[in-house]
Amino acid sequence: MQTGSSNDPSAVKAQYASSRGLDTRLSFHERFSVNKQGYGTWLVSNYDIREGMTVLEIGCGTGSIWLGNDDIVSRCSRLILSDLSPAMLETAKRKLGERANIEYRQADIQDLPFSDGAFDVVIANSMLYHVPDIEKGLSQVRRVLKKGGAFYCATYGEHNFTDKLAEWFERGGEELTPNHNFTMQNGREKLGAFFKKITPLFYEDALHVTEPEALVEYLKSLASFKAVKELPVQKIREILNEHLADGAIDLPKEYGMLICF
CB under 8 Å to 243, separation ≥6 — which residues? Predict the structure, then answer.
């Protein structure tokens, strides 16, 4: 559930160099999202993972979507959690532990170290917009996916809270450009070159931020939001406080998932 202003590899690497920033963002959404089902819970509820399937998650982060889902994990004959960041993999391994059917692998979606048709299911949550060569990445997903296999990719839309924040910061004399490299709106077209059937699902939600300082911390945790990260904290507070009403800041959330076959 991360957003940024570009897919610059150095900025992305900095943003995910440790799990601290990601934990800040996950905690923020958990605390202030209106839909209390939880985005991760909703994502998993839409996965069709059956007994004996082989599953690959690309960009697994801290492995949080698998916590509390032991029944699904146990169905997998092989579950590979991969990420570019060794720190993220260490955190995932610490949280989920050593299990006979789980492997932790450092991997780049643009050059996946797996054989053709190795997986029944491939998952990529909130990470495709960071990929420098999205076509190359998607071609690799298609290659390692079995015929008839499913690709689940989650992303955000173009009517999201980052777009609203961009408007606010522009009015405050600052430039903030949301990352629209892969969204719910344009993702289907990008996926269409590799998959015949693509089904979009939207997750209904919004943010009701009763602690504006938490939003400041969220924004400062985004290394790829350079324009905001370089601003003095007081300037960020001033811009956000202009939109405070009855002690809270309300923002739209547009998240979802594209299911591909």
Answer: 168, 249
